[in-house]
Amino acid sequence: MITNPPQQTYLGRRTYNRPAARVVSSAEHQLWLARHLTPRDRWIVRMIHEHRVLTTHQIVELGWETRRSANIRLLELYRWRVLDRFQPLATSGLSPMHYVLDVAGAAVLAHEDGLDPKKIGYQHDRAIGIAHSLHLAHRVAVNGMFTRLIHHARQPQAPGRLTAWWSEERCARSFGDIVRPDAYGRWEQGRGEVEWFLELDFGTETLRRLTFKINAYDRLAEATNIHTPILIWTTTRVPRSTSARGPRRGAARPRPSGAGADRDDRRGPRRTRRASGRHPDPLATPRPTRDRSSQPGPARRPLASHRPAPHETRQGRNRYRHRTAETAASTPAHATRWPGRRAGRGLRPFSPRR
């Protein structure tokens, strides 16, 4: 039996989940957490503290097998004030939850390292301030690359494993006077290993800026006598002349040969510009046209061919005349005075249909 039925005015409204109740972080709560936090929970909290923000999908790749079990545990860590979370606005669909370090989690990490929680430099306002940062998508993309490597290493019979993953802040503390990479990683496979500095570009880096970064890494190799490869990860966008994937300024572009080669390449044919809405690229390969007449296959029916109607055949015309004569003989005389008026069914000629 339903003891508390919903009101009629509530049935047509969109319902929202009730906010989860959160406890107050205190000394008693710290003692309570010592009995409930698992080693995996402490490792996830330390990873979030090192890299500032991780999404639900990235946390699943780090230490869980299914997303449902990860969501259940993350909800408990959120209620215990170990982690805090937010959900950015998405243009389509829903974005995943983003988790940052909370007050109780920072105190747990400080006590594990033998430090005073007030002197570790943790500020909750700064931790949740990344939700409004313009570099949020950049950091999430960098973290996602390394979480996928860890997920690949967790699979059975994995060929290698990720042995080092430094965040941008840790790289800045070590090499900040020369370079500031987005991350540093080291992958070990068999008896060999490879390390790299990661530079992520969403298509906004100019060629001058990229050249300056490469020269800075050359100075770092000369200062440390360690030659570390640079992994430049770019997105697939339309290249521009000022972007890292575009041509250098002043670089000569080959002119097309043939008809129309003496006209200005920057403008292009007027008809082409109106059709495409942008200037045509003279270096683009023309798309070959398909000749359907030479291709094998069943012949198409001509558009004018159709099945003749019954009244178009000889047999149909004879039947039509016979029925029209019968209808005229059975029609009353007064019904033929107004041809436009429908006096009866016999006034409309019968069109045979099969």
Care to describe what's here?
This protein has 354 residues and is of the alpha+beta class. The protein is 35% helix and 11% strand. The longest helix has 18 residues, at 136-153. It is extended. The model is unreliable at 1-16, 247-289 and 334-347 (pLDDT under 50).
Descriptive key words:
354 residues; alpha+beta; four-stranded mixed sheet; three-stranded antiparallel sheet; 11 helices; extended; disordered N terminus
Write the layout of secondary structure elements.
Blueprint: H1 27-33, H2 39-51, E1 54-55, H3 56-63, H4 67-79, E2 83-86, E3 98-101, H5 103-112, H6 124-128, H7 136-153, E4 160-166, H8 168-175, E5 183-189, E6 192-201, H9 207-224, E7 230-234, H10 270-276, H11 314-330
Parallel strand pairs: 6-7
Antiparallel strand pairs: 1-3, 2-3, 4-5, 5-6
